[in-house]
Amino acid sequence: MIHFSQGGVETIPHVDLGRISPIILERMSEAIGVVDQDLRYIWVNPAFRELTQYSDAEILGQSVSLLRSDHHSEAFYFQMYQAVVTEGEWQGELLRRRKNGDPFAIFLKILKISRGVPAPPLFIDIFSEIGATTGDREHLEFLVNHDALTELPNARLFWDRLHNALERARRNPHGPLLLFIDLDDFKALNDAYGHLQGDQVLVAVARALVSVTRAGDTLARVGGDEFVALIEEGDEPCEPEATAHRIQAAIRDVGRHLAMPMDIEASIGIAIHPRDGAEAATLYSQADRSMYERKRQR
Fold it and tell me: Catalytic residue at 225?
């Protein structure tokens, strides 16, 4: 049996799943799931079912990845798992996805429960939803609309801002400029140096992009190694090629200043409103095509 004490969970060898403090776990307001060595749910409490919208029949036997949102990278989950295995626990904020597909923010704590040799360990997944107070709701709004790794706007927020920019363009003689930025050979970098190093590169590139654009511009991460810059030109038009060259120079500089220096290049596609499209989807597609044309020319 597992006993709950002031310091947390006391580990007792040879835990019987059917006797893991069932009355306490059933009545707790936090969502709780018990996970086996294959990272599949073998028991959940009522609060878990209510938050996730999954019934016992739908969740038991399923991998923990069923609740994953697309907000966090594989490296993030790898680090989480390593911490649980080696240190016995992990805690932090993340986004999960309900049965209906809606994302929700939680504070999660995972505990490793050792049962003694030869029984494999179990894991206790304890979480509560963020969103009860005004501050929580603002934090949730940020999590939903920003990339977890770089903290740049994500695709959801980018498309909202692009549509708004095109509405404003009707009253401005100079329409917005869209730059589609794709890191060259990023998969090879990930394969050679690992996902953790790859994530460090992405964070450094994001910071470099912020440093060479204006505060009013929108920089977003829309894919694994894909970024977009939405530049509203105001009363004076900017020079698209000069802007692209400035961004490329900043990205090259990132590689020189890493702990493990490497060559980092980017292909950048350009689309200008209304020349290359009056609608958001058309403008985005043209910037994407332009990027691939430049990549083929490299």
Answer: yes
Nearest in space to 98 (alpha carbons), one of 74, 58, 69, 123: 69
Confidence of residue 141 (pLDDT cuts 50, 70, 90): confident
pLDDT tens, 58-84? Answer: 999 999 999 998 888 888 898 899 899
Comparing 227 with 257, which gets the higher pLDDT?
227
Query: Are 120 and 150 in a shared domain?
Result: no
Q: What is d(CA 61, CA 267) in angstroms, rounded to the nearest whole number?
A: 44
CA pair distance 90, 42, nearest whole angstrom:
20
Q: What is the CATH number of the domain that holds 37?
A: 3.30.450.20
Output the pLDDT for position 45: 93
**165 shares a domain with 220:** yes
The answer to whether 208 touches 160, Cβ cutoff 8 Å, is no
Task: Give yes or no: residues 168 and 134 share one domain.
Answer: no
User: Which residue, 291, 258, 286, is CA-closest to 184?
Assistant: 291
The Cα 95–Cα 53 span in angstroms is 15
Length of the chain: 298
- Has residue 99 got a pLDDT over 60? yes
Instruction: Give me the catalytic one of 182, 225, 276, 288.
Output: 225
Answer for the pair 70, 46: CB distance below 8 angstroms, yes or no: no
